[in-house]
Structure formats: structure tokens, C-alpha cells
Design a protein that fits this description.
By secondary structure, this protein is an all-beta fold. It folds into 3 domains: 105 residues, no CATH class; 112 residues, no CATH class; 106 residues, no CATH class. Helices cover 1% and strands 46% of the residues. Strands 6-3-9-8-7-12-1-2-10-11 form a 10-stranded antiparallel sheet, with no helix packed on it. Strand 1 and strand 2 form a beta hairpin. It is globular and about 65 Å long. The N terminus is likely disordered.
Length: 404
């Protein structure tokens, strides 16, 4: 993996370390905020935490898509086969066509979420598009915590919820915690941005758990200055007061961790596996990310598709027969790092040999991604919609996709 240079944000506070979130003057704009209505007609309004994980607008809501409107665009003879490759070479096809696809959206791109039973929900995006989705992740069925201004903190069981409507947090609210921010060093380079440790811990009051020679230990993330991997079993944790402790044998500090999210503004969200991770240095900042009002209404993907014969088509573009909006997420991996990039950040896609795709971003960065469906031979192809005409191009026949 090529080296990634560290970008520096001018607002970071590299010296003074206030003791509380209030002293830090945390910006409330980036926090999830909205109104939860229950089946009995009660409403709760305030900061939200979705399950044990999501707390911010750039966090992802994950589920499964029940409908793929463009699936019929793929020629019937290709709907029941998959490519089989050995050492990168295609040797044939077999198996059934996989109908399932993930629904992934940043909370900031969502207008509201309506429960339609224990396993299904309707999600309405900011542009008014409505999706019926299922419980393919723990986000459908999660307990939602609301910090209601008058009632205090309340945890609402999913079965009691009717609808969640999102809105911007009032500017005069003061969160009791701050958001984790840091520089994460990997074997191939560095990433800088908001950090979610083990895909859960993202607030200063969340706890890092581990075992020491003297017993079990739980440390508030806000007290930690750095975490450095020692080996597959554990990591060195340095506190802000200079103390250093070795924690081992829990999924917070060993190879069984679920991974580390970094919200890096160059790429969107990256997920770093333990084998790739080396060290994180936390920087205390009152920043929390973009506010709800800063998320635009992102419509259809538009551009030009060129095939290997030089033919080209322009219009609305549907990638993998299901991703057609600017807010949708392209997934792909480079070594042990998974990239989750909103399509509006992408300038072009070029499928390459051995099931890889060259992804060119609007900021000038280029990534050679593989493994995930969006960027591999498992991609179900591209549809170009121009007026009433729908044109299908098999993924293996695509030379280049250029987005407007």
C-alpha cells in the first residue's frame, strides 16, 4: 500500500487538555439529534445514540435492500451464474445470482425512519426517495437512547418505536461528552479523523476494556492519549497523565477486535483491521463533524459509461444494479483496509484485471480497490437510463465510468 501523507486540520488543539467536555466547548452540530415517536403516542426529542454505536451524522445506518428495481435489466441468461476465478484467471461460471444487497447510508442523508414491523422499516432520504429495508444488521432492532431535554436520558426498545425524525441540534445545547479524534498509523500509511474504536467506542465516556497482570481494567476513552499494538494479544495504552499500561485478551485490545473506523475526509469512512493497525494518537478537539443542515439532498448519479469496444452512453447511472444516488456508498478493500466512499466523492471507476477497480476521487486521490462486490467481478453490471431507454452493460465489458 502506498504511503498516505497526514493532513492537518487547523482547529486541532494539540496542547491544552481541559478536564471536561463543557470546558472544551464541544460543538453539538455533529451529534445525532431528532424526535422518536412511540406506539403509544409519546415523543422524545434530544441527542440520540443508535444501539451501542452510532452517535453522529456521518455514522452509517446499515440494513438490507428488499427491492432492486433494475435487477430485470440484466439479461436473463446471466442471472443464475457467477464467475469462478483461480489465481485471478476466470475459468467459468456457476451458482445462483445473489439478489441481496446492503443498504448503507449516513444518518445525515436520512429524513426519517419508520418501523414497519419487527424486521422491516421504511427509510426516507432527504431527496424524498423511500426505501423498504430489512433487518440485515443490528441497526434494525437496536435500542435507541434519547437525551430528552426535559425528561433526561431514556432508552427505547425497538418494538415500542414508531418513527424517528431527524433534525439539526439546537446550537445552544452542550453535550456532556466529546467525540474521539486522532491520527491512526497503519503498516501502509496514516489516516486522520474521527475514530470509532472496535466499531463502538466513539465518545470520551465510552470505555476500553482489557486484562492486566493485576486484574480487569476499564478506562474511559477520554483519558487515553494513545494506543499502540504490542502483538496479537494486546496493546500498550498511554494515559494523559503519562501512565502506561499493557492491556490484553479482550476484543478491545487484541486481534479479535471488530476493527477501527476512521472518518477521514479524503475518503469517507475507512475500516482498519488489527493486523494492519499499529498505533493511534488521540487529539482532544471540540469538533464533532458536519451538522445535519450541511448534508445536501443528493439526487441521481449521472455521467457516461464507455465499454471495451469504445461505445458510450450518457444519462443516469445505476452501479451494480442498485446504487443510483449520490449518497450511496461504494465499498472496496486495499490490503487490510476497507474503504466506504460516498459516490458523490468519486470522479470515475475503471474495472481492471484480477477483479480490481481503479477508483479516482474528485480530490485527486486514486485507489486500487478489490474484494467487495462494488469493485470486483461479482458486480452485477451497470444500467444507463436516458429518457425511457435503459441500457445494460456487463461489468466485465466496462472500460470506464465517469460521473458528472
Amino acid at each position: 500500500m502506498r504511503q498516505v501523507s497526514v493532513w492537518i486540520l487547523g482547529f486541532l488543539m494539540l496542547s491544552a487538555w481541559p478536564a471536561t467536555a463543557n470546558a472544551l466547548e464541544v460543538d453539538p452540530a455533529g451529534y445525532l439529534y431528532g424526535t422518536v415517536e412511540t406506539e403509544n403516542g409519546t415523543s422524545y426529542t434530544g441527542f440520540l445514540r443508535w444501539g451501542r454505536e452510532e452517535s453522529f451524522w456521518d455514522d452509517h445506518f446499515n440494513a438490507g435492500k428488499e427491492d432492486r428495481p433494475f435487477r430485470e435489466a440484466r439479461p436473463r441468461g446471466e442471472r443464475n451464474r457467477r464467475q469462478v476465478r483461480i489465481l485471478g484467471l476466470r475459468i467459468g461460471y456457476w451458482g445462483e445470482w445473489d439478489e441481496s444487497r446492503q443498504f448503507i447510508a449516513r444518518f445525515g442523508d436520512i429524513r426519517d425512519i419508520e418501523r414497519a414491523g419487527s424486521r422491516r422499516v421504511f427509510v426516507t432520504m432527504r431527496d424524498g426517495t423511500r426505501y423498504k429495508i430489512d433487518d440485515s444488521s443490528n441497526d434494525v432492532g437496536a435500542t435507541i437512547a434519547v437525551d430528552d431535554a426535559s425528561l433526561g436520558k431514556v432508552k427505547l426498545d425497538w418494538k415500542r418505536i414508531e418513527r424517528v425524525t431527524f433534525s439539526a441540534a439546537p446550537a445552544d445545547l452542550r453535550p456532556e461528552t466529546w467525540r474521539l479524534f486522532g491520527v491512526v498509523k497503519t503498516r501502509g500509511g496514516e489516516f486522520q479523523g474521527f475514530v470509532q474504536w472496535d466499531l463502538e467506542e466513539c465518545l470520551s465516556t465510552d470505555e476500553l476494556d482489557g486484562e492486566t497482570d493485576d486484574g480487569d481494567l476499564s478506562i474511559e476513552m477520554g483519558q487515553i492519549a494513545s494506543i499502540e499494538k504490542r502483538n496479537r494479544r494486546g496493546a500498550w495504552v498511554e494515559l494523559r497523565d503519562g501512565r502506561r499500561v499493557l492491556l490484553e485478551d479482550t476484543n478491545d485490545v487484541d486481534h479479535s477486535t471488530s476493527g477501527i473506523f476512521v472518518e477521514d475526509e479524503r475518503y469517507g469512512r475507512v475500516k482498519i483491521e488489527w493486523d494492519e493497525f499499529e498505533r493511534v494518537d488521540f487529539v482532544k478537539s471540540g469538533a464533532t463533524g458536519r451538522g445535519y443542515e450541511a448534508y445536501p439532498s443528493l439526487g441521481a448519479l449521472r455521467g457516461k459509461v464507455t465499454d471495451l469496444d469504445g461505445k458510450s452512453w450518457s444519462g443516469e447511472i445505476v452501479v451494480d444494479l442498485d446504487e443510483s444516488r449520490g449518497w450511496e456508498i461504494l465499498n472496496g478493500s486495499l490490503e487490510d483496509i476497507e474503504y466506504n466512499i460516498p459516490f458523490y466523492m468519486i470522479r470515475s471507476l475503471e474495472p481492471m484485471s484480477r477483479g480490481r477497480t481503479l477508483v479516482a476521487l474528485r480530490n485527486g486521490e486514486e485507489l486500487m480497490l478489490e474484494d467487495e462486490t462494488d469493485v470486483s467481478d461479482d458486480n452485477d453490471g451497470v444500467v444507463i437510463v436516458s429518457g425511457s431507454t435503459e441500457t445494460y452493460v456487463n461489468w466485465e465489458d466496462v472500460e470506464r465510468i465517469e460521473f458528472d
